[in-house]
Amino acid sequence: MKHMKSLIAAAVLATASLGSTAAFAADISHGTQALSVIDNSANFGSSFVQNNLNNTFMDKFSFSITRVPHDFDAIVTSFTRNATTGMDITNMSLFSGAGTLITAGFQESTGATDVWSLRADSLGLGNYYLQVSGKMVSGTAGSFGGTVMLAPVPEPETYGMMLAGLGVVGFLARRRKAAKQA
């Protein structure tokens, strides 16, 4: 009899748990946005409407390097009155166009103000995207914004030309000095 009561209780509990509606976080990500890189810099960001408590996002910002390798630096910020409103940025990473992780960002601060930074040296020619991830921590609206900077990396031929130029300048200076002494 005791065994039968346990079986009935387990069946009732299992049935009740199957009928319950579990609250799952919704994905509120925006589609991939192309960065408008002008003079090797670009601004990016996203905004989210209210009533998205516990929903998550992974927004992507794409760009291409088409001429010479570039160093890459990025920063993203979100701020609110306190840590329990708006959003929480949980990650920022740089990926190749094929989806291979190149480097992850570094969290500079968290709480009312979230700040993440990221840097990558000598990105080769190709397509890339920056991914910013996070979670809405309240029912209020939220947004984040950031900036990327690209700095061309001189190619080895450039260094060779610079050294050759310095050699010519040194040769001419030495020749002038010798002519003055004679």
UniProtKB/TrEMBL annotation:
It comes from the Bacteria. Residues 152-176 form the Ice-binding protein C-terminal domain. InterPro entries: Ice-binding_C. Keywords: Signal. Residues 1-25 form the signal peptide. NCBIfam families: PEP_CTERM, PEP_CTERM_FxDxF. This is PEP-CTERM sorting domain-containing protein. It comes from Massilia frigida.
